Amino acid sequence: MGTNDQTNDHVQGKEGTAMKIVIDSAEPADCLVYPAYFRESFPYRLGEARRSPGGVTWLYGRAEEEPDVLAVGMGKREESTLERIRRAAGSAARSLLREGKSCAVLMRSGGTSGSFASASVAGREQDAVEAGRKPDVTVARREQPASASGSGASHPAAAEWLQAWTEGWLLGLYRFQKYRESTKDERTVELTVRSADWPELKASELEAAIGTGRLRADGAMLARDLVNESPDDLNPGRFTEWLEAYFRRGGAPVKVHAYRGRELADREMNGLIAVGAGSRHEPALVEIRYEGDPSLPMLALIGKGVTFDMGGMNAKTAADITDARMDMGGAAAVVGAMDILIRGGAKVNVTALLPVVDNVPDANAILPSTIIRYPNGITVEVANTDGEGRLILADALLHAAKLGAAEAVDIATLTGNVGAALGLGIAGIWGDEGMRQSLVEIGERNGERLWPMPLMDEYEADLRSAYADLRNVGRSPYGGAIKAALFIRRFVAEPMRWVHIDMAGTVQYKQDESYSEAGATGYGARLLADYAVRMAERAHSEGRGV
Q1: Which residues of 43-82 are buried (b: 16+ CB within 10 A; e: fewer)?
Q2: Considering the entire predicted model, what is its pTM?
């Protein structure tokens, strides 16, 4: 893992993202990129059908000196969202790559300089004026997504439009090519933003919008790199070593500690020890503390880090189990979020807890019907060794409570059942109502969507064991994602508030999709970073501290 130059380049911007978007470049462009909205003026002839969201239309120059034009469908302006902007930017970037373009200029579409303000907000303000009332300017402020940078641009609608475009553009250019040789494609597309198109933004605000978008895209791409990685390079040992080295770099106020071997046993992290028994790589719980503002209540971000899930002794039998390497998607999301927060200097108090292990069969592997004892007094019968994620999350949640976390978010590729229930475009969330609502709102804005799921207390009867306090899985095939959340809840110590996110369906795209190629999505990195900032803001507004 330490040799993955692509991961480091995405984060450091050495040869990738830092050079993909520039302001006022003097270099000639291959192409002009125009967002195209329904029923709005456009400098070229373009039918309404070609302005639908997700659509791209090439208008080729009639002479060599005339640049080509790419029209990017945006739909109705009043229905525009930041996620639609990201998807449009990603589609544009990927279309330019396919066409062999190397540089383009983003052209601001027709209308006034303030035309990027949310049309739904603008409509409500106009209604207020017509009714003789003063427009509620706080509506626009409430609809801005949380930003790890904390930048306060004077025209947030334009700045956040450009930030969203930057995120989508860079995510759209992402390709995982570490293991390609003869098929490696080194091409990229440089985008120029013209400052003259953004008169309401100062130069510093323009740079901040692009910089924040780049920072957030870098965090998501770091998560993608980790999830896409080969299990040869990302086994528990190497992953732990990489995490220690990566987060100890620089002078950020970060403390990193990896609990291994005797330390795991001393702290009775018996779930990790049991799951990792069949592997030649020792398990670890990696603790990463970032105290951007240590006076704030602590947020624990817990990410499942199973680097390869063969299922243990209940071995998976599918013809293709290469996706088993992606079972550390929760840990990758937490790593990406921490990267955004730390590099952005966010004023938060966050501790990441990453239980890292692989789940493989071996003569030493844990056997079905084995009993695990946890330090909170609960015993668990391992009815199925392929239900390993909840066993290691239990360790991390108990550790979070010992550290004094006020809130905990656990995120995991936990059950296929959640994908059957919700599909592959949205994750499920259980737990504290206030936390859940806040995360759902954030996900609607940044595109990492969540659907609130119930904790059905009566379903817990299916987790009863004849030999221990709990089974790790139920007997019935129905409601598996809910029962997993109910199991995890038993390891949440009061008064710590908690939510559980099951992202098994959203960890990867099966085919190229707007701003993502087939493979890892990087889901959760921006979601968790935004929630950490919102929690800190809420604590400040309520006058809470430690």
Answers
A1: eeebeeeebebebbbebeeeeeeebbbbbbbbbebeebbb
A2: 0.89
